Every structure is written in C-alpha cells, then in structure tokens.
Amino acid sequence: MAIKTSLVLWQLHLLLLLSCHDLNLANAAGGKWDLLMSNIGISAMHMQLLNNDRVIMYDRTDFGASNISLPDGKCRNNPKELALKIDCTAHSVEYDVSTNSIRPLMVQTNVWCSSGSATSDGSLVQTGGFNDGKLMVRTFNPCNTCDWQEMGDGLGQSRWYSTNHILPDGSQIIIGGRDAFNYEFFPQTASTSNVFNLPFLRETNVPREENNLYPFVFLNVDGNLFIFTNDRAILLDYTTNTIVKTYPQIPGGDPRNYPSTGSAVLLPLKNLRSQKVQAEVLVCGGAPKGSYLRATKGDFVGALNTCGRITITDPNPQWTMETMPLPRTMGDMVILPNGNVLIVNGAATGTAGWQIARNPVFSPVIYRTDNPSDSRFEVQTPNAIPRMYHSTAVLLRDGRVLVGGSNPNELYNFTGVVFPTDLSLEAFSPSYLDVEFANLRPQIISPDSHLKFTYGQRVDIRFTALGLLNRDLIKVTMVAPGFNTHSNTMNQRMLVLPRGIVRQVGRFVYEVSCVFPKSGSLAPPGYYLLFVVHQDIPSEAIWVRVN
C-alpha cells in the first residue's frame, strides 16, 4: 500500500512539474540566429516593414558606389551629389521576406540619417537627410514594381537626425534634428503649414555633443506626445504648442539620445476598456556624460547598463531604475508579439559616430515586461557579427527579428578598419519559435489578412492549436511596425486587445471575440500585425487595417 501511495504521489508531483513547465515554456533562455543573406548590396542603416511583408532598407548616397547595381542600366545623374555625380548603383533595396531576395530601388537625393513612418494607407513616407536631401519628402508604395517618389522641398526646415510619429488623424509630425529646435507636419494644411518652435529641444542640446538628436517620441493615450531627449522628457500638446507636463530628470542625469544613443519603447498598452489607460515608457542604455568627446580622442568609456521605466500617465510620475545584465550603447529595442522586449545590437564602450565605439555586444537580452523587477532580463544566444553604428532591427510577421547593418566607417570599408562595413542580413528567432513548442502555437484561420476594421469594432478570431490549450493564457496583441534607424524605432506600438471567453468550436479549433481600440489616440490609423498568443507563444500574424 505504501508503494502504491508513493507511486501516486510521484505521479502527481510529475504532473505538477509538467504543468508548471507548460506555463513557462517560452521562458527558457536561448533563441537562435540564421544568416539570411551575406550581401544585400547595401548596409541596412534604415528599415521599415510594410504590409506586403517586404522590408524597405537604405543607407546613404554619398558613400560612392554600393555593391548592387540599379536595374535595366539605370543610373542616377545628380550634379549636387558629394560622391559620384553619375551613379549606377542602388542605395536602397526591398527585401522580400517570403523569397529571401532583394530588389534594388532608386533614391535620387541623400537619405542619410533621415526619418520616416508608415502611413495610414500603408505607404512609407520618409523625410529629410543630408546635403540635397535635407528638405526632401519621399514616398514608397508597397507593390511589386513600385519605386521611390520624391517631392522637392517638401519640408519647411532641414531635417537630419529627426524623429517622425503618426498622429491620431493620420498625419505625421516631424520633430527636431541637427540645428532644428522645432517641429512640423506632413502633409501640411492651412493650420499646420508653419514650423513650430520647441525651446525644449534647444535646452537639451549640449554644445559639441548634442545628445538630443533622434528624440524618443511616443503618442500618449490622451493624444499628447511624450518627447524624451538627452536626460529628460515633456508631454507636448502639439495642437497648441503647449507643454502640459514636465517629467523628472532620469536618475543619474546621463544622456540617452544620439550620439550617446540609448533606445526606448512604449510598453504594451493594456486594459483598453478602462477609463484611464496606463502608459509606460522604458529607456535603456546610452553613454555617460562626456563619452562622445572622449571617444573622439580614443578614450572609450563604458556604456550605461541602466534602464529607466516610468508611467507617463501618472499624476506624479517617477522613474524606476533597473540594471541590465550587459552595458549597451547603440542597442535596438524591438517589442515581441508576446509583449516582451528584445534588446539587440550595439557596443559596450564608446558612442555612436565614425569608428568611436569598441567591444561589440553580441548577446541580445529579452526584457520580460510583466515579471517582477528582479527577474526581467534574460541574456540570449549571441551572434557572431558585430552590429555597431548604423545597425538595425525590426519585427517580422512570423515572429522573427530581422537584423542588419553596421557601418561605423565614412565609406564602404571592408578591410583595414576595426569594424568593416557589413552588408549581411540575419534573423534572430526567439525561443518561442523552437520546434518543441509547435503544438502550443496558435494558427489564425479567420479573419483573412488585410481586412479593414473601424475603431471599437468587435471581431471574432478563429485559430487552431494542436496541443492542450490553456484558455486563461490566451491574449491577442496588435503591433504597429516601426521605422528603425540609429537605435530609434519610430511609431513602434503594441496594444493588448480586450477579449471575451475562448470557446472551442471544432477539433483543435477555437474562437475568441476581441474589440479593437476605440480611438486614434490609442492606435493611430494604419496597418498592424495581429497575433494570437498562447502561453507567451505567438501565432504568425495577420495584417489588419484599423481606422
């Protein structure tokens, strides 16, 4: 009898262990790297995923010749160009995720260190750049044969190292940049045709270092803009050019923006039916004060290993500081479909700039947003390619993260430098894509991709799951793909949709009813990736258009 009782207890213990294991399947450290292409022809300095599952990338036109020719014997003839006046090579490409192939694109003017945003109709609007590109607006429509279209002098102010954000009405705001202490709108209207002065940008500009370029900008749930530059932030009512809140300085007072170059995300928005939706911002990495000038003299200071987290909707917001397992400057922060954040790329010493960083950080880190504060960071499998200055990373529809770029050199330099120009493209697959979790991975079967939905609309989502489904651990997330460059992913945004009960409607088939956000202040109009997530394991997404 004692043996039988012991056996039963052992079996119960085993079942409990397996149950706990299932609840934490996707929490095991790891992930894996795959080299997708060794040479895409350019160094991917800027990236944007569009709703046809193709990623637009570009670097700059004044590098000289790239490693990929323009098609059909085309050449760019630009007498204002600082490198090749006649250039028959491409400085922008379109990467097709499904075929793992590249199509060369043609930009006419210099797009170096520019900014952009996907629009409400799914096209890409890109603004500014260098030299003859500093006042330019360029558009790209997602189609098989489309190419860049340029609008000369579409801006009222030169924009170099600026930040774009889509607004609740579908227009864009373009903020800051080098010697640009103001903001403007695109497209312009009768009431928004001016450039609007923003003294905060001048106040956070450090002589000879700046440390306020590529501001971190997030649309708050009240429709105002959270703007972080250097070591502090404001909440701006852009419609009246009024600062409605000034946030406390981030503890330590060290700079987080270019060229010290940390990164930032708006954490997933939840409880969207609540009268007061909470919004939190996470700012990670960067470099201590004075690091940029010291790096230009060969003294590479250790990067910051801290993150600041703040609830920007609180009446009395305060920063909470956390310590990363690895110091990092020039890191990229990508919101994953399950709401966690991947921190990838960058260096452990120095800053952004030409050849002034050392010690690549090869290991990504996953930040588990909802974990207790002492267990949020988890180091992942390292890659083998240094991703230094001018590296990029964006989320793909299948849950992988596309990683490319790295050119800390003024030209394309492949030999004789500490960190050669890199033209490769990789994918990082978080552990939720491991084959052992296939039975728990949902697969969306309806609605179809690319359907339109209105604010507040209810939708029934059907999905399959072959393994045992824990209905309490199902959530539906919606991610706005961002425009990534210089450790700043503009417009990146995740919402966790309110849902009803999960019902079984067939063998391995389930249905859950969800409600889309109620306004453009929560979710600016446009295309989103919609995922069903089970025990932190996401489905492949479908595209939804919300307006």
Automatic annotation (TrEMBL):
PROSITE patterns: PROKAR_LIPOPROTEIN (PS51257). CDD domains: E_set_GO_C. Residues 441-546 form the Galactose oxidase-like Early set domain. Residues 45-432 form the Glyoxal oxidase N-terminal domain. It comes from the Eukaryota. GO terms for cellular component: extracellular space. InterPro entries: Gal_Oxase/kelch_b-propeller (IPR011043), Gal_Oxidase_central_sf (IPR037293), Glyoxal_oxidase_N (IPR009880), GO-like_E_set (IPR015202), Ig-like_fold (IPR013783), Ig_E-set (IPR014756). One of its GO terms (molecular function) is oxidoreductase activity. It is found in: Secreted. Keywords: Oxidoreductase, Secreted, Signal. Residues 1-28 form the signal peptide. PANTHER family: GALACTOSE OXIDASE, SECRETED PROTEIN-RELATED. This is Aldehyde oxidase GLOX. It comes from Solanum lycopersicum.
